[in-house]
Design a protein that fits this description.
- InterPro entries: Rv2743c-like (IPR057952).
- By secondary structure, this protein is an all-alpha fold.
- The protein has eight helices and no strands.
- The chain folds into three domains: 71 residues; 37 residues; 102 residues.
- Helix 3 crosses helix 4.
Length: 262
């Protein structure tokens, strides 16, 4: 909205300057045509002066009409500076996310900002544990398909819920520091209950990550010898066989001897 308002006033200013410029041009050309036109008749040069003056006058009239029409429209309303800053940040984030490594950079910046916002609260170490477990699960999520796919979706939903709970724990803790003594005990009990809930949720999330790692390990473990290892063994045996055959051929075939004459 701020850009639309700025564009509106820029266009209004351009039309005003253009209307004034063509008005001055039409006046100058008209005056020159009136002065230079001879009394005995109009020549070719005088017709050119008059035509240029008429064209400039027509353009000036059109510019003034456009200016009046645009000035009659209401200007776009102003927006709050905070909202304008938020929109600017959103455009910057969108531009960064279009880069090849942009989504990872944006996610890391958001993670660091969220952790800094919880610094000094009881939710900070729990947030760090959740963050570490989420990174471990993110490294396995591309291979957790089939029966494990619903668990990945549930883990993403639980991650959002636990991070929101961590923010509430931090907010209650900050309010607890400012609360007077009388209502402090109920607020402290609520804060302790939220911390216990967050701790149990993070522990359950960590158990889910461990279970996902176990599933991935069992799903990718072969029943016998690995295919790559067996192929390497076969290639090694083949090379040994070829080398032995070449050595045997070299030992059996000696250099040719030419017969000697007496």
């Amino acid at each position: 909205m701020s850009d639309e308002r700025a564009r509106y006033f820029r266009k209004l200013s351009r039309l005003r300057r253009s209307a004034r410029r063509w008005s001055v041009t039409a006046g100058g050309l008209g005056g020159a045509a009136a002065v230079l036109t001879p009394y005995a008749g109009i020549g070719l040069a005088d017709a050119a002066w008059a035509g240029a003056a008429g064209g400039a006058l027509a353009l000036a009239v059109w510019r003034w009409i456009d200016l009046r029409a645009l000035a009659a429209q209401p200007a776009p309303p102003e927006i709050d500076p905070a909202e304008a800053a938020a929109r600017s940040r959103a455009r910057l984030v969108a531009a960064v996310e279009r880069l090849p490594v942009g989504p990872g950079v944006v996610a890391e910046v958001r993670r660091v900002r969220s952790r800094m916002a919880l610094r000094g609260t009881a939710a900070a170490p729990l947030w760090a544990r959740l963050d570490q477990a989420a990174l471990a699960l993110a490294g396995m999520s591309a291979r957790l398909t089939g029966l494990a796919a619903p668990a990945v979706l549930q883990a993403a939903e639980a991650d959002r819920s636990l991070r929101e709970l961590a923010g509430r724990v931090a907010s209650v803790e900050r309010a607890l520091r400012l609360a007077p003594r009388e209502p402090r005990s109920p607020l402290a009990d609520a804060h302790a209950a939220l911390i216990e809930q967050l701790d149990s949720g993070v522990a359950a999330y960590e158990q889910l990550v461990v279970a996902a790692a176990g599933y991935l390990a069992e799903d990718s473990r072969p029943s016998g010898e690995h295919v790559a290892a067996s192929r390497l063994v076969e290639a090694t045996d083949l090379l040994h066989g070829v080398a032995s055959a070449l050595a045997e051929l070299r030992s059996t075939s000696g250099p040719l001897r030419t017969p000697t004459t007496n």
